[in-house]
Specification:
Elements (H helix, E strand, L loop, with lengths): L11 H31 L9 H32 L4
Amino acid sequence: MSDLGLDSKVDPELQEFIHAQQQKAQMTARILEFSETCWDKCVDKPGKKLESRQETCLDNCVNRFIDTSLFIANRYAQKIQKQSGGY
């Protein structure tokens, strides 16, 4: 956790908590990014309720973002594993 400026004297439980909080913050940021991007793409004129077309667009848009993010994360993990001699 040296990237956080924490030294080895910090309690490992505290380091784990900080890491978990960072992951939560990253996930929240990604969800916000998905929401904004997909809203801008799918909802051209907000009304009292979403039209069926808008709902479908939002659903597909978010699912594609999730699929792409998982694909990239898996490829990155594979690359790291290969570099560390794990294959």
